[in-house]
Design a protein that fits this description.
Elements (H helix, E strand, L loop, with lengths): L1 H14 L12 H21 L6 H8 L3 H4 L1 H24 L1 H16 L8 H15 L3 H11 L5 H30 L1 H22 L13 H12 L2 H29 L7 H6 L4 H9 L1 H27 L5 H29 L4 H76 L1
Helix pairs in contact: 2-6, 2-9, 2-10, 5-6, 5-7, 5-17, 6-7, 6-8, 6-10, 8-9, 8-17, 9-10, 9-14, 9-16, 12-16, 12-17, 14-16, 15-16, 15-17
């Protein structure tokens, strides 16, 4: 009898109003979570790309080429890509919130040291450490959302986090551009470090505690099996490829655009070049609208719209008219952020176990794409100017299209196979 009584008590307890419910839109917890992760996105992305708008000034001060200066961006994104998987494994043991808090603390501390780097080598080294620290935030945030948010609200919640990323990326470039024009690029980087410190404090104050997280062991073999399982999943592999290729486009375009606009015939100042990144506001809107796009067009339909928009933007940017170039950047930004939000949320929905590792693999592919895009985009700029950079980006867009078309064919084939099996079962049942 006691066991039966205990089971009944457990059933009653599970159905009481005090049992935790996933966060839903409209609740105070959801609002706090949204603001906290928005602030986290601001903090890490204001730091991650803080040198991108300053590359022409860094090149001039240190006497280096665009390709060499681009390593201040690529070192950070490359280190992030390499460290995101092991740090996500640690988050499975020690918790999502603890990992995000520790990662942001280290990233902000290093960010306050970067402005004092005596040469390019030191700056690249510090930026690599900073990128490694930042790695603890994105995958942990995606896993936290997948665990704490009601499934139907997941795409929208991830869209808000990605929107914070876009605002952070925009703010970092905008602030550094104007601060560099007034006080120099070192003061600009210090300003960004202080801004990130404030955002990290907001995150720590607002984030609701994790209620559905369950610690897992740090058995490397178990982690290896989980990762291997994700890498054998064809759908996850396609999503990783899409994320990497989208980010190759974005990294190439925004690493090189500052050089193009500071040269003839535009000759824009550092502040004006930084203001170009206000276009990131378009990315914020596109990310937040990703859930509605998927609801109307389906996942693949939303991706087709994203790649078409990106390709049109790349073609428009070939113009020598500043207005058309800016329009092209608007389209590229909207297409990229919509595609990224769709792909990243699909990873969280596809992975049934080891969500942190699944998200980490996506982030690794995504930031390897960023590093490759930044470095290859700069090399293309040296070899053939802006048309060569656009050619590289269009090749990556074509890769996204190819993956999406292949995925559509696989889905149709699987659907037809399921329909054949269902018809055969009905015939057997009626025989």
């Amino acid at each position: 009898m006691p066991p039966a009584h205990t089971g009944a008590a457990t059933t009653v307890a599970a159905s009481t109003p005090s049992s935790p419910e996933p966060l839903s839109p409209g609740t105070s917890g959801y609002r706090r979570m949204s603001l906290a992760l928005f602030a986290a996105g601001l903090a890490v992305f204001v730091l991650l790309y803080s040198t991108q708008a300053l590359l022409p000034a860094i090149s001039a001060d240190f006497g280096v080429t665009a390709g060499q200066a681009s390593w201040t961006v690529s070192a950070a994104t490359g280190a992030l890509a390499l460290c995101v998987l092991p740090l996500s494994a640690l988050s499975e043991r020690f918790g999502r919130t603890r990992m995000m808090l520790c990662s942001m603390a280290v990233a902000v501390a290093v960010g306050l040291l970067v402005p004092f780097a005596p040469n390019l080598e030191w700056m690249v080294a510090l930026r690599a450490v900073q990128g490694a620290a930042i790695a603890g935030v994105p995958a942990s945030a995606m896993a936290y959302l997948a665990e704490e948010v009601r499934p139907k609200a997941l795409v929208g919640a991830i869209g808000l986090f990605v929107a914070g990323n876009s605002i952070g990326g925009m703010s970092g470039r905008l602030v550094t551009g104007w601060a560099a024009q007034m006080w120099g690029w070192r003061a600009a980087l210090l300003t960004v470090g202080l801004l990130a410190l404030g955002c990290a404090a907001v995150f720590a104050a607002l984030l609701p505690r994790a209620r559905f997280f369950r610690p897992a062991s740090l058995d490397p073999r178990a982690v290896g099996r989980t990762v291997a399982g994700h890498l054998r999943d064809p759908l996850l592999l396609r999503l990783y490829g899409i994320g990497a290729l989208f980010m190759t486009v974005f990294g190439a375009v925004y690493t090189v655009i500052g050089y193009r606009l500071t040269e003839e015939p535009f000759s824009l100042g550092q502040g004006a070049v930084g203001s170009v990144f206000l276009i990131y506001l378009v990315g914020t809107a596109a990310s937040a609208a990703a859930g509605q796009l998927v609801a109307r067009l389906g996942r693949r339909g939303a991706l087709y719209l994203a790649v078409t928009t990106t390709a049109l933007g790349l073609l428009a940017s070939l113009s020598e008219s500043l207005g058309l170039i800016l329009l092209g950047l608007v389209l590229i930004t909207a297409g990229f952020f919509a595609g990224h939000a769709v792909a990243s949320s699909s990873v969280s929905r596809t992975a049934k176990t080891g969500r942190a590792q699944a998200s980490a693999l996506y982030q690794s592919a995504y930031y390897l794409g960023s590093s490759a895009g930044g470095t290859l985009g700069a090399l293309a700029w040296h070899s053939g100017g802006w048309p060569a950079t656009v050619g590289l980006a269009l090749a990556a867009v074509l890769g996204v299209v190819s993956i999406t078309v292949y995925g559509s064919r696989v889905a149709r084939t699987e659907l037809r196979a399921e329909q054949r099996v269902a018809r055969a079962e009905r015939r057997l049942a009626s025989a």
